[in-house]
Amino acid sequence: MFIKKKVIDKIGFFDESYFMYYEEVDYCYRAKKAGFKIGIDSKRYYEHFEISVNNPKKEFYLFKNRFKFLIKYGSIKQKIREFIRIPKTVFEEIRKRPFYLNFFSLNFSSIINKILHFILFLIFISYFKPEEYGVYTLAWTQVGLLLPLVDFGTTSYGLVHINDSIERKIRELFSLRFYLSLITFVLTISLAILFEYPSSILIPIILISFVIFANMFSGTYLILTSIKQKSYFASFVSMIFQLFLVVSLIISVLITKKLSLVFIVTFVLYNLYSLVNFILIRREVGGLSLKINLKKWLEIIKKSFVYLLISLLAGFYSKVDVLILNFIQGKEAVGIYSAGYRFLDALMFVVTAYNVSSIPLFSKLVKEKKINIFKNKIRKDVMLVFTIGVFIALGFYFLGPIILPLVYKNTYLQSIQVLRIIIFALPLILLTSVFLNSIYALGKAKTVIYIFLFQLIINIGLNLYFIPRYSFFGSAYITLGGELINTLLTFIVLWRVL
């Protein structure tokens, strides 16, 4: 680029605020406005050594500086046009960045699913008695007890270690996940029989257990699409299915008012969901095999066993109160307790969103040995999540008795009191998430196993002692106390490893 001295004397130097693109465009525009001629010698060229196809930083600076140029020199008409097409512009920019497209689609899908199932919950407590809703909760709790076995850490393994020969490795992974789901299915039903559930609960558990296979198929498709940087496909399929499922369940309840039909519809639609994901996987990788490869399986299991134990212990810890409550107090108590707990569960997307956003950054800071920045982020995150959690908890505590009677019918009014207790677990869960994510980033995940094992033992003991005396209120206070202990223990562990 050749610039005459008189041009510089008249319009000055480049505008450095354009760093690092568009400064020459701005300069040429200013020169033209000042009356100078600008041009390109098309007979001259040189080799440009930048060969990057995907450069997020470059895309960001180009986008930012193009917008800056528009604001600075654009006409009113051009600015209005750009304002109107903002949604399209944002979509175009996100499409250039697979990470953001996948991240937002997964979180959007998760939030939509939470909203849909919360609407379904409101329908259930409007049409079913607490003991009926208790059966529904017990069926899902029993199935969820061993659900971490289906994954067995294969999702993490697939995302981290499958970078080449994708189709072949996905087929190997599929066979392992299939046999894990089969084992989990058999163990879940066997455990339900061992617990001596009556047929009114056992049959729903058997029907819901087919969700295990649906999770296996949908999880495999998520791994495959994530590896190919196209997880928004899996998000879209999941969201459409959940919408169809919830609408179908609501219609079945409104027409028949029978809980049995809820389980039948769930059974049919989840098996259909399995079939759809199976077809999608086959379309991507070709034929699927159920070949047993113990050597490869052991390699995967060895790398993921710690996280499997954490998932299992955390799952047992969060579900044991419902099981004990059922055996001591019955289905009605489970229904009342679960109806209160459901609001806290609906807010778990806040925790998930924080975890998804924070874990990569924590890991990066530790890897780059930026310990001071790492500690500073922990402090900031503690203040942020605790403030959010307390604000939400106080809102439910003070406004709950005024607003929630509009949601709960008379038979569920005690659920409001359960919620007013249990909602204060939210800020504690958020704090624990900060400490756990930091511990994971520091490579001390094994320590968490002992925390959850200790918590599980304490939780079982306290529930067995207090439920006969205080029923579901005892479970609510134990849940709150358990989360407080979790927060303190994870803080102590983090304090020591730092």
Automatic annotation (TrEMBL):
Membrane topology recorded in Swiss-Prot or TrEMBL: Multi-pass membrane protein
InterPro entries tied to this protein: Nucleotide-diphossugar_trans, Poly_Biosynth_Transport, Polysacc_synth
UniProt keyword RNA-binding present: no
Transmembrane intervals: 104-128, 140-162, 174-195, 201-224, 231-255, 261-281, 305-328, 340-362, 382-404, 416-436, 448-466, 472-495
GO cellular component: plasma membrane
Domain of life: Bacteria
Protein keywords: Cell membrane, Membrane, Transmembrane, Transmembrane helix
Keyword Isomerase appears in the UniProt entry: no
Subcellular location: Cell membrane
Official protein name in the record: Uncharacterized protein
Species assigned in the record: Candidatus Roizmanbacteria bacterium CG_4_8_14_3_um_filter_34_9
Lineage, broadest ranks: Bacteria, Candidatus Roizmaniibacteriota
